[in-house]
Task: inverse folding
């Protein structure tokens, strides 16, 4: 009997100790893993800091001389918002105190950008042009990067464990794993702004646009009503219960939701290959993505700059399918606070991953510098179709950003076509007159429409005075 009592006492003691340990764990203040040593905080915004603690626990956040206090709610969640911080190239103190204290080291304040999309955004510095030289020269202590792992989820996640331990400082030891487009974008911004640049790398090769889109995005676009009305059925799962990572919501839930509402200036996006063939439906999906991200970050003007896909021979596909995506991407510029880097001149039609990510990043940075950072008199875009009219059996085309349009190689302009009344297209020539194009063809006496670069392997030679290439376009209404 005595032995039984002793045994029971030991069980009670162990259970009590376990319960106390659990209580201690629950009482610990915790922040999501997007916060960490070497992070960059967004300047000039009311900055959110959030996390978890024991319900009712007092939490004090102290950052760069500011102190904010709050209490965890009934579910143990808490959040404060700091007054806007000024950029700082030297570390600022960052601590959070409850029943325990967290201190982050080497925290800078500057500009933070989300880098998302499929493989051309995920493509690393080590896989891009001149990797040995770029890695050796990769010492940029003001540029930092954090990589979100591939992770679909059936619910909006609150936290995610980043790859390689969290935020990394750009150096010859780390930069090879940075998103190349993001890194070169950041390098150009830093060179112009002289402030820290933080990159949130959340990308996954081969992915479609739908899994990255939040519920609010689908609901905002009538053309996607079939998804919006059935969100409860997404993301889809296989018979083994595994989540289909290409299914709507899957990657928003697992790879974007854990980052919000971390302070960001905007997003850069390189995706579309996996939606090739969808034509203008891709425009609707792009609108849903942008609307959705702006909704979850509560910023209707969140900048969104994207890369127009490069020319590439997609096997046995219709060679005009890619042009349909180009037109959808061009049309997305109608969405306020967006911008597009055209890449028809830095492509490789036999490699879906063109190596010159340096220029891609620079062209995205031009949009940000002009639109968000007040850089005046900066040519930030190549020629973009504006309008056309028929005159004397020819079509006259006007462009935005078309000052100084010319041939990039001093040869006749290429890849123009005219459509006649019968709907058939014929090759056409184009001449420049006072920054307008005069397009004509002996085969078309009554031209109805004009198109440019309308083939997946087209690498046209039309550029503006700054050498930036013109976007492919068509004046024919397409689906």
Result:
């Amino acid at each position: 009997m005595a032995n039984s009592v002793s045994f029971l006492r030991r069980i009670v003691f162990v259970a009590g100790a376990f319960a106390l340990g659990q209580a201690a764990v629950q009482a610990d203040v915790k922040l999501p893993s997007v916060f960490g040593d070497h992070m960059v905080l967004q300047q000039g915004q009311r900055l959110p800091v959030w996390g978890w603690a024991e319900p009712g626990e007092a939490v004090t956040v102290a950052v760069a001389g500011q102190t904010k206090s709050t209490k965890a709610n009934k579910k143990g969640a808490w959040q404060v918002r700091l007054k806007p911080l000024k950029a700082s190239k030297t570390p600022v103190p960052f601590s959070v105190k409850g029943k325990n204290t967290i201190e982050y080291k080497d925290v800078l304040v500057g500009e933070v950008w989300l880098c998302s999309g499929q493989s051309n955004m995920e493509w690393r510095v080590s896989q891009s042009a001149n990797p040995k030289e770029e890695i050796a020269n990769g010492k940029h202590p003001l540029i930092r990067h954090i990589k979100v792992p591939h992770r679909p989820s059936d619910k909006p996640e609150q936290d995610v464990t980043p790859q390689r331990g969290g935020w990394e400082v750009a150096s010859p030891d780390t930069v090879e794993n940075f998103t190349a487009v993001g890194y070169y974008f950041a390098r150009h911004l830093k060179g112009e702004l002289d402030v820290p640049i933080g990159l949130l790398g959340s990308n996954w090769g081969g992915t479609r646009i739908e899994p990255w889109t939040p519920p609010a995005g689908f609901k905002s676009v009538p053309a996607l009503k079939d998804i919006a009305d059935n969100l409860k059925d997404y993301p889809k799962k296989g018979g083994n219960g595994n989540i289909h990572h290409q299914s709507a919501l899957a990657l928003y839930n697992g790879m974007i939701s854990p980052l919000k509402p971390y302070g960001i200036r905007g997003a850069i996006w390189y995706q579309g290959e996996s939606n090739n063939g969808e034509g203008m439906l891709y425009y609707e999906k792009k609108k849903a993505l942008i609307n959705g991200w702006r909704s979850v970050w509560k910023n209707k003007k969140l900048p969104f700059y994207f890369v127009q896909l490069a020319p590439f021979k997609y096997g046995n596909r219709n060679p005009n399918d890619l042009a349909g995506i180009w037109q959808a991407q061009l049309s997305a510029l109608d969405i306020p606070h967006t911008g597009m880097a055209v890449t028809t001149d830095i492509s490789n039609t036999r490699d879906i991953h063109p190596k010159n990510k340096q220029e891609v990043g620079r062209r995205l940075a031009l949009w940000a510098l002009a639109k968000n950072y007040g850089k005046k008199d900066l040519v930030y875009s190549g020629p973009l179709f504006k309008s056309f009219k028929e005159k004397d059996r020819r079509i006259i085309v006007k462009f935005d950003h078309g000052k100084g349009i010319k041939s990039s190689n001093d040869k006749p302009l290429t890849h123009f076509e005219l459509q006649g009344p019968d709907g058939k297209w014929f090759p056409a020539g184009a001449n420049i007159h006072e920054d307008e194009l005069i397009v004509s063809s002996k085969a078309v006496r009554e031209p109805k429409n004009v198109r440019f670069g309308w083939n997946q392997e087209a690498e046209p030679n039309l550029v503006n005075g700054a050498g930036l290439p013109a976007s492919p376009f068509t004046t024919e209404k397409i689906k």
Summary: The two ends are 84 Å apart (CA to CA). DSSP finds ten helices and 22 strands in the chain. Residues 2-27 form the longest helix (26 residues). The domain at 109-371 is CATH 3.40.50.1110 (Rossmann fold).
